[in-house]
Amino acid sequence: MSFTVELSNGDSDLDGILALQRANLRAVVTPEEGLRSGFVTVAHTREILGRMHAFGPSVVARRRSELVGYALTMTAESRPLLPLLEPMFARFATLTYDGRALLAWPFYVMGQICVDASARGQGVFDLLYAGHREHYARSYQLLVTEISARNARSLRAHQRVGFSELTRYRDETDDWVIVVLDMRR
């Protein structure tokens, strides 16, 4: 089965992204399924996704016309939209990458990545990140995200596509791993 990867077309993709997100929230999947298949932690609203899209369209994967994966683009302008992520952004101010303060780099955040169960194990995750490189590497040098330390599948997948670990920390909700993808390489 082949997949196409492209920038989100906006409003018509938002409902598909939200449906896929709701089906894969950590609060919804069983602990066993979360260990086996991964999960997402943040639930967005349609309004927030629309505003994020206006700052930088997300990358989506389709099988024919069905949305089967997404990788949310979160530029610096998106920061105030999700106060829940403020601890992550505050942590960024304390980090360095390749001898420079992280905040000195042109970077953006992977707001969340998710692949439908029917498309897992078929390379969609890798295709979504290839789409990010294709569309954003000219504007940004780094792509940064954090992953729940309990989400072993996601940690392995991010490492596979080239992310390296910057740090780990704990907040009131979880243990987190901050990782970076150097888009110059």
List keywords for this structure.
185 residues, Aminopeptidase, alpha+beta, 29% strand, globular, two-stranded antiparallel sheet
Q: What structural class should be given to the helix and strand makeup? A: alpha+beta
Tally the structural domains: 1
CATH class categorisation: Alpha Beta
* Rg over C-alpha atoms, rounded to the nearest angstrom: 15 Å
The count of DSSP E runs of length 2 or more, i.e. the number of strands, is: 9
Helix fraction bin: 25-40%
Number of helices: 6
Shape category: globular
Q: What do we call the CATH topology?
A: Aminopeptidase
Q: Judging by the overall fold, what is the CATH architecture?
A: 3-Layer(aba) Sandwich
Biggest β-sheet strands, sense, barrel: 7 strands, mixed
The average pLDDT score comes to 92
CATH superfamily: Gcn5-related N-acetyltransferase (GNAT)
Strand content: 25-35%
How would you summarize what this structure contains?
With 185 residues, the chain is an alpha+beta fold. It has helices at residues 11-23, 31-37, 46-55, 86-92, 124-136, 152-160, and strands at 4-7, 59-63, 66-74, 96-97, 100-101, 107-115, 142-148, 164-170, 175-182. The longest helix is centred in the N-terminal third of the chain and has 13 residues, at 11-23.
Report on this model:
With 185 residues, the chain is of the alpha+beta class. The chain has one domain (4-182): Aminopeptidase, CATH 3.40.630. The protein contains 6 helices and 9 strands; from the N terminus they run βαααββαβββαβαββ. It has helices spanning 11-23, 31-37, 46-55, 86-92, 124-136, 152-160, and strands at 4-7, 59-63, 66-74, 96-97, 100-101, 107-115, 142-148, 164-170, 175-182. The strands form 2 sheets. Strands 1-2-3-6-7-9-8 form a 7-stranded mixed beta sheet. The longest helix has 13 residues, at 11-23. The protein starts with a strand and ends with a strand. 33% of the residues are buried. The model has no long low-confidence stretch (mean pLDDT 92).
